[in-house]
From TrEMBL:
PANTHER family xref list: OXALOACETATE DECARBOXYLASE ALPHA CHAIN
One Pfam family named in its UniProt record: Biotin_lipoyl
Protein keywords: Biotin
Annotated protein name in UniProt: Acetyl-CoA carboxylase biotin carboxyl carrier protein subunit
Organism whose genome encodes this protein: Geomonas paludis
Lipoyl-binding domain sequence ranges: 61-133
UniProt entry tagged with the keyword Aminoacyl-tRNA synthetase: no
Length: 133
């Protein structure tokens, strides 16, 4: 079965295989959904926005000094050290999720007071990774 999708104004034809015994229903139209897709190999790619790990709005000033994980994953490498002074977007920790490495960077300038994770530890979204002085 072939479906046609429109992403960023470009139409793509997609082959979909339906397993025997599965029920398939196609609606007349689907709601528009915004999807971020990676470009195909060899095509230019814009630099990704830094992962800040900043907590949601409305938190206290003390919690603003805590860098939180934006995703679930396993700590692959701890780069920052306690006592080290970091600038915004300096690398703190590298997480591995779904066989991909994600750099977690400092969301503020300051001295690292605590590293709250260790290599091999599983982290959840919103879990504190590091605390700044």
């Amino acid at each position: 079965m072939q479906l046609t999708m429109t992403i960023d104004g470009k139409k793509y034809r997609v082959d979909v295989e339906v397993e025997e015994g599965e029920e398939v229903r196609l609606a007349e139209s689907y709601p528009t959904t915004t999807v971020q897709a990676a470009p195909l190999a060899g095509m230019p790619m814009a630099a990704p926005a830094p992962v800040t790990g900043a907590p949601p709005g409305g938190m206290s000033a003390a919690s603003d000094k805590i860098c939180r994980s934006p995703i679930a994953g396993v700590v692959f490498k701890v780069v920052a050290q306690v006592g080290q002074h970091l600038e915004v977007n300096d690398l703190l920790v590298v997480l591995e999720a779904m066989k991909m490495e994600t750099n977690i960077t400092a969301h503020m300038s300051g001295k690292v007071e605590k590293i709250l994770v260790s290599v091999g530890e599983a982290v959840q979204p919103g879990q504190a990774i590091a605390e700044f002085a």
